[in-house]
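User: Quick one: structure for sequence A, then sequence B.

Assistant: Sequence A:
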Amino acid sequence: MKNSNGVTLIELMIAMVIIVIVSLGFLVWETDLFRHDAAMERNNTAYAFALDVAERLQRMPDNSLIQHTTNRKCVGFEASTGNLKGCLNCTGGGPTVDISVGATGTITYVNPWNGSLLYLYDGNNCQNKTWTDAGCGPAVTISPAANSNIDHPSAVGAAYNSINPVRSYRGTTYYAVWSVAYMPCNAGTATDNRKIFITVYWLTPEPAETGVSAVQTKIANGAYAVHSVTTTVEKAIGTES
């Protein structure tokens, strides 16, 4: 059967099928591109957040935010590779302990998720708020048991006023935690030279739960994923102007 233009019905159907297939392919490509762009934006936002926290910590005087408050840690640079490593101890043991966590880029000292517990969660109270706003800081769940190495304070207090550890941007909540180690390996706690590790992490998809227990369950079963960026800076106490 032909229409007035000489195109058969079969040809028309084939053309429509081709158009549908091409359109679906374009839609899949566009969706993947959108996801990639969104992931890159979150990663860049988290890194900018980490750098801001790092700068603020570097500018602080010698106070509790830049002293280790949990496990005493010392780090140094491995002679053979130049890689930053944990020390066997703080009284002379060499820098030979790997402090990375798999391929995530997180450091053991600031890894916020231990497989069952999350260090910091805001319970959906901090979106579009600052740390000192009512309903944000006081409602945050902080769990030191998630990582005993983290030196980020484990209770809400005035120390946070200059460093907001929870920030929201474009529907994603970002959390900052940090840890302090002394340098070099034989430094003990007498040195003023410190290495500060800062990790900023976020969850995808953005959780809707107000309770951290439900969030932890979903992370454990794969419904939510923890993403993070980590940076390190050095701090020399007593050199501030």
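Sequence B:
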Amino acid sequence: MKHEELEYDVVIIGSGLVGLAAAIYCGRLELKTIVIGKEPGGTITKTDFVENYPGFKKITGQELADKLKEHAKEYPVEIINENVEKISKCKEGCYTVYIENKHYHAQTILFATGSEWRKLGVSGEKEFTNKGVHYCALCDGPIYKDKVLAVSGGGDSAVKEALLLSKYATKVYILARSTLKPEPINMERIKKEPKIIVIEGTTIKEIFGNKFVNKIILDKKYKGKNELDVDGVFVSVGHIPLSDLAVKIGVKTNKNKEIIINKESKTNIKRVYAAGDVGDSRFKQAITGVGEAVKAVYSIYEDLKGERVVCSCVDEE
């Protein structure tokens, strides 16, 4: 094969909103780009409604992801649904990205791998996953019509999960480890929803059931009892950054496993960038991740203008 057929200016790892936004700007700057991601659209596709993305008063997560993908396809950008198995650094400073039975060479790498749902880590959680324990109300809420549910978590995401579940369930408990901390508009919404009961300063200690969940044990008593009869538990206690691939090539992370990036979305490794939930930015929203992606692409563009490498790994194919 010819050199130009094997090598990309940018390999974007992750096909969520952040990766797709990066692809749009790569296309505009005429950077030869491929996006590799196992989950098209990313975790936002599991969100019922998005109301804080500029330009859209109200849009589903899936619709928003579809719009970005459609926009990215306006440019000669490749998008493939695969899982990246490993990355290696060539001696000249370029990179090889491996998927099953294939590999791609890149001048630069942009990590837009996002995060995965954090688990509670309590007895019964693993045993009853998908048997009463879930992590996505949009995905699994409809099967609990006229049931009693619990949501573990105290942030805005947990409150939005509870609001969605209240459309199906007869009662929804929100169990917040400390105080409830949603956005003000969502706090007002749960106050107006009679099906939702907020229990603060409490979390789940154990999950019980037969074939399916039927009871949870609390770490503190509620109305004189430390247990609640429920038909399902939805866990919404944050996310874990998917940074393992980056760490293996020497990218630095903080104590929370988030990739450390500067204001230009650069990491400590030359020609490696990161954006979105996998990064160490304090405020994590779809719009901030997209902004970091744009900065990353402009950093890539400027860096490639200054110096390109001739990768011997390509010539050895």
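Residues 148 and 171 are 5 Å apart (CA to CA). The first strand starts at residue 7 and ends at 13.

User: Thanks, that's what I needed.
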